[in-house]
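Late entry, nicotinamide-adenine-dinucleotide complex.
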Amino acid sequence: MTAPLRSGEPITVPVALGTRAYDIAIGRGLLAALGARIKALRPGAKTAIVTDRNVAQHHLAACEAALKSAGIESAAIVVPPGEGSKNYATFETVCEAIVAARIERGDLVVALGGGVIGDLAGFAAASVRRGLDFVQVPTTLLAQVDSSVGGKTGINSRQGKNLVGAFHQPVLVIADTALLDTLPKREFRSGYAEVAKYGLLGDAAFFSWLEANWQDVFAGGQSSGSFAREHAIAVCCRGKAGIVARDERETGERALLNLGHTFGHAFEAGAGFSDRLLHGEAVALGTVLAFEFSARKGLIAELDAARARAHLAAVGLPTQVSQVPGGVPGVDALMDLIAQDKKVKRGKLTFILVRGIGQAFVENDVDPAELRAFLTDKLASA
Ligand SMILES: NC(=O)c1ccc[n+]([C@@H]2O[C@H](COP(=O)([O-])OP(=O)(O)OC[C@H]3O[C@@H](n4cnc5c(N)ncnc54)[C@H](O)[C@@H]3O)[C@@H](O)[C@H]2O)c1
Ligand SMILES: [Zn+2]
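Prediction complete; structure with ligand written out below:
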């Protein structure tokens, strides 16, 4: 972790990917500078803004005005909100609309929205004319700290989430922290699970800072003049940018970002990927289980697991299976879901476990019987 911010100057986090390197700019009110930044990067480019109806209602006009003020033409492509838009039909609509807007090589696609829009618009950009450049303007906390960085784009297959897609890096990410002011509180809190995850997986000092400052991150500094939100987002982006630069295609270290996600995906799937359990809520619960499982294996003290659990509970995220509305699948179903999510190699499962707060590692040798016993106890005590 680097020292917390004292001024409202935008923060730049570089993503070092050689000829595909790009910057993430973080700051309150940065959307207004989108046109100027795009003009500096791609003089003469036209743009197509892909967004969803909710985001359009709050922020499309400002985005269009920012582009227009720099003399940049834009066409708006508005899709329905929600995970359902990461499907073939909407992908087709978006690709056709980009072509119809005469966006060509040298022009830009702008993804204005949460992770759904970033993944969908990014994949459309990767596909139309065999690859158009695109800019991410993430509007959820999850998108600002996670999905807009790293170049994973795609849609869902009928057989599973994110099964059809491409690695396609943006040329610029503009994280305007003021856009999060209109985000429903539950969505913000859900995204916060990923913020805590960065501390828990690799940055103990950041986790301690979050324990002391999370309320300011939620408040966003509108009245207090604190830059806690910007600082937190920057630390997460630096963390992810570093990991992505070292392991773009997830052959090693990038897997650490999946802390809490194997358990989490099983609960999300169990809830049918519905509003019953948002992604970050599932990740919070999954992270607690990853810590508790690590404690049971003797890798960490019970106290460390309790500390992770206490922080996630303090912000209002679920930390016990009994808190999932409608309940969770039984042990057999959970084991099946976990086996589907993770490659099983020679009868062993791969999990991200911890040797302490901020010390996650990839464990390729988890015995399914041990995991089953752990989950049986967890469900029994729920
Ligand atoms: N590519 C990656 O590396 C990566 C990483 C993590 C998650 N993801 C993907 O991200 C998606 C989840 O993203 P998400 O949580 O941002 O969901 P989302 O994009 O569906 O946004 C959540 C909700 O908030 C609304 N919204 C967004 N911004 C708003 C704003 N500023 N004000 C008011 N409402 C707003 C949206 O319309 C939507 O209803 C999943 O599909 C997941 O697979 C991708
Ligand atoms: Zn996640």
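The CA atoms of residues 214 and 363 lie 30 Å apart. Will revisit in the morning.
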